[in-house]
Amino acid sequence: MPENQNIEWKESWRDEYLKWVCGFANAKGGKIIIGKNDNGEIVGVAKAKRLMEDIPNKIQTQLGIICDVDLKNENGKDYIEIDVKPYDVLISYQGKYHYRSGSTKQELKGSALNKLLWKKAGKTWDVVVEPRAKLDDIDISAINAFKKGATTSKRLPFIADEEDIEQILDNLLLLEDGSLKRSAILLFGKNPCRFFINAFVKIGRFGQTDDDLRFQEVIEGNAFQLADKTLEVLDRKFFVSPISYKGLQRVESWEYPYEAIREVILNAIVHRDYMGAPIQISVYDDKLIVWNEGSLPEDLTFEDLKKKHSSRPHNPILASTFFKGGLIEAWGRGTIKIINECKKAGLPEPIIEYSSGGISVTILKDVFSKKYLLDKGLNERQVDVVIYTKENGKITNSIYRGMFGLTEKTAFRDFEKLVELGILIKVGERKGTYYKLKVG
Predict the structure, then answer these.
(1) pLDDT confidence band for 440 (50 / 70 / 90)
(2) Is there a smaller number of Cβ atoms within 10 Å at the N or the C end of the chain?
(3) How crowded is residue 207: how many other Cβ atoms within 10 Å of its Cβ?
(4) What is the phi-psi region of residue 311: left when phi exceeds 0, alpha when psi lies from -120 to 50, beta otherwise?
(5) CA angle, corner 337, sides to 123 and 205, nearest 5?
(6) Is the distance from CB of 400 to CB of 387 less than 8 angstroms?
């Protein structure tokens, strides 16, 4: 039986391992094997029969739970297996709460402890009643925007005729015994930050390093306003929209695919931990990063996000209302849409990862623009070869020489630098050699 996130090996028993029992009970359960070393080898345990009495008693008296404790023998060596089942209620050890996450044990405090309490009670943060909130705190224009979206998307086609605001909120599960839930304020509140201080978006424009903050902006509003407001400010103040012409008509396009950015922001609003920091958007010369505090659901990996996966939003009431209002798709397709929109725009696949206690999504700009390549120190000739490769898929040494009348040695030296900078990659050998873009 190999050691994994549900199994822990210990050479001998110490009372402090009651913390591990507590951690397993609060998570998905697991086994603690006393008498195995870190390599999984049976080393045996002294006074096994006495421990067979002491361990169950200590678990019961100090944790208030019962575990199966079995004495086993292998090659004449005794070892003890403690089988801990998951509990529906929260278990504490000496007034502290522990939780097994991955292969480590954490002591839970603050918001992490509150989240586990809600989870054990079958609740999430967004379903809790906000006692300070009143119906007067609801923004009627946000309700009307929701009605329009729900009607257009045909997800709630009959809501257009409903005028009773309280009835609408109740039908959306945003009321409990006539009181507003937190999700109601976040979705439709006139000023959500009055109730939840970090319910805003912070945008910063950076130079080459994170220390070089050039300017920043704070966007406030309810969830139905926040995405559009953020997109508007990004477009007006943070993006440089390239301009082209179709005939005599001036056309402005985004530096990044609009639908991808919108989906990232909507996902952040739905999945973020509202007890933590605000959503943060960092704009650089060559990339945009959207960060929100939170974590993936258990058993879901970042690779899973690239394909159809189960939808388990951090704030399910929030997510359900966004879906009914036509803002998001259900069934775990948000990240797939982000990836596909970037690919359609000819951009590299976005990077989704854990960062600073939250999840960040990095969308890379078209790094093969002329400005970006010149900033990398390329000469005009090398820039042209990259643009040619971008448009044609690949380039050979002979084609490059023909474009500029170069010697084979000079062309080879230019290609060497492009490969060294990670812009091109070499494919094949000798006469069959060609070069293609490394990303994109």
Answers:
(1) very low
(2) N
(3) 11
(4) beta
(5) 90
(6) no
Look up residue 295 and give its two tokens.
């974590």
**Whole-number Å distance between alpha carbons of 302 and 403:** 43
pLDDT in tens, 314-333: 888 999 999 999 888 766 78
- As given in the structure block, the two tokens for residue 157 are 């086609």
Helix locations, 304-362, DSSP H: 316-324, 334-344
Q: List, as one string, the DSSP characters of 378-428.
A: --HHHHHHHHHHHHHS-B-HHHHHHHHT--HHHHHHHHHHHHHTTSEEEES
- Asked if residues 28 and 86 have their Cβ atoms less than 8 Å apart, the reply is yes
The reported pTM is 0.69
Sheet holding 96-101, edge to edge: 92-93, 96-101, 104-108
C-alpha–C-alpha distance, residues 86 and 67, integer Å: 10
* Adjacency order of strands within the sheet including 77-84: 7-10, 30-34, 77-84, 68-74
Q: What is the DSSP string of 252-320?
A: E--SS-HHHHHHHHHHHHHHS-TTSPPEEEEE-SSEEEEEEE--PPTT--TTGGGS------SSHHHHH
Task: Identify the helix (H) or strand (E) that includes residue 346.
Answer: none
The whole-chain average pLDDT of the chain stands at 87
Most confident of 115-119, 247-251, 300-304, 398-402: 398-402
Q: Which domains does the chain have, with CATH numbers?
A: 7-122 (3.30.950.30), 124-364 (3.30.565.60), 370-437 (1.10.10.10)
Q: What local confidence, expressed as pLDDT, does residue 93 receive?
A: 92
Q: What are phi and psi of 17, to 5 degrees?
A: -75, -5
Element (H, E) at 49: helix 48-63
Burial of 223 (0-12, 13-18, 19+ CB in 10 A): buried
Q: Does 24 have pLDDT greater than 50?
A: yes
User: What is the C-alpha separation between 263 and 327, in angstroms, rounded?
Assistant: 9
